[in-house]
TrEMBL record:
Domain Ribose-phosphate pyrophosphokinase N-terminal: 8-124
Keywords: ATP-binding, Cytoplasm, Kinase, Magnesium, Metal-binding, Nucleotide biosynthesis, Nucleotide-binding, Transferase
Binding site for Mg(2+): 134, 176
Cofactor(s) named in the record: Mg(2+)
Pathway named in the protein's UniProt entry: Metabolic intermediate biosynthesis; 5-phospho-alpha-D-ribose 1-diphosphate biosynthesis; 5-phospho-alpha-D-ribose 1-diphosphate from D-ribose 5-phosphate (route I): step 1/1
Name of the molecule in the record: Ribose-phosphate pyrophosphokinase
Binding site for D-ribose 5-phosphate: 201, 225, 229-233
Annotated positions binding ATP: 41-43, 100-101
Residue numbers annotated as active site: 199
Species the sequence originates in: Butyricicoccus faecihominis
Residue stretches spanning the membrane: none
Nucleotide-binding in keyword set: yes
Family (UniProt): Belongs to the ribose-phosphate pyrophosphokinase family. Class I subfamily.
Length: 319
């Protein structure tokens, strides 16, 4: 697949080695050799076991839980490659942690997403490749190029294959007002009606459903979101669609399955028939359910990496 130019190397952190291996295999490359270990006091040590001088280096590392360990590991890997004279360093971050802290919601709040962007840039990254940032404006937090891949490029074809296109009995539902723009893109591609859950959130990780905007009675509903953390918003929305809206079936999809705390129990006991997520975050055995369907993102990142390396346009992947 790689036809010209300087050599390319793919390295993996500890957060998602399976995804890095899939990407490297699709590119016809081995995973770069690196020794990543932790000292007794928790300090992270990274040693690149092969030369990266002049190479186009791609470091695959989701900053999922444990978020701080994985983030620090990525920063040290970037610094290691920079000091080893890598030609260009691209941080491939399928799931970008801290993305939800993208603004000051009250006085004296930090903007942690900006801080993380500064850290990645200061460490020496030349480019960032990620997927479905919680807020698109986070791209502007970086002073280096950012390619934000869209999870909808994987989810929409799956939904189209399962439910068809232009069907009147299926409704795309935004679980809150913040996801309306994302849900509208699904409705445009799938030619389906849109409904919106209007909710009030009293405090963090607690949501209260208020109203359903749109007609879902007697219809199949597909909830669309960018990430699922404790699943409170998702499950409350699903309950409302069935109990208040009169929906016949509820499905859900999201790019990032954080699935922390009571998420698995909530999803298992909810009216959601199937939850489809992408493998930007590895799904551990304790989080696997028959209801949860996982789609691969390796093909999207493989194509993006190939285009970045060959200096061709990545923008067509956003369509």
């Amino acid at each position: 697949m790689i036809s010209h130019g300087k050599n390319i190397k793919i390295f993996s952190g500890n957060s998602h080695p399976a995804l890095a291996m899939q990407i490297a295999s699709a590119l016809g490359l081995p995973i770069g050799k690196a020794a990543i270990s932790t000292f007794a006091d928790g300090e992270i040590s990274v040693s690149m076991s092969e030369s990266v001088r002049g190479s186009d280096v791609f470091l695959v590392q989701s900053t999922c839980g444990p978020v701080n360990n994985n983030l620090m590991e990525l920063l040290i890997m970037i610094d290691s490659c920079k000091r080893a004279s890598a030609g260009r360093i691209t941080a491939v971050i399928p799931y970008f942690g801290y993305a939800r802290q993208d603004r000051k919601s009250k006085a004296r709040d930090p903007i942690s997403a900006k801080l993380v962007a500064n850290l990645i840039t200061a460490a020496g990254a030349d480019r960032v490749l990620t997927m479905d940032l919680h807020a698109a404006q986070i791209q502007g937090f970086f002073d280096i190029p950012v390619d934000n891949m869209l999870g909808s490029s994987v989810l929409i074809p799956y939904i189209a294959g399962k439910f068809g296109v232009g069907t009147d009995d299926t409704v795309i539902v935004s679980p809150d007002l913040g996801s309306v723009t994302r849900a509208r893109k699904f409705t445009q591609k799938l030619d389906m009606p849109l409904a919106i859950i209007d909710k009030r959130r009293p405090k963090a990780n607690v949501s209260e459903v208020m109203n359903i905007i749109g007609n879902v009675e007697g219809k199949k509903c597909i909830l669309v979101d960018d990430l699922i953390d404790t699943a409170g918003t998702l499950v409350h929305a699903a309950d409302a669609l069935v109990e208040r809206g009169g929906a016949t079936e509820v499905y859900a999809c999201a790019s990032h399955g954080v699935l922390s705390g009571p998420a698995i129990e909530r999803i298992q006991n909810s009216p959601i028939k199937e939850l489809t997520i992408l493998d930007t975050i590895p799904l551990t055995n304790d989080k696997k359910l028959d209801k949860i369907n996982v789609l691969p993102v390796a093909p999207v990142f493989t194509e993006a990496i190939a285009r970045i390396y060959e200096e061709t346009s990545v923008s067509t992947l956003f369509d």
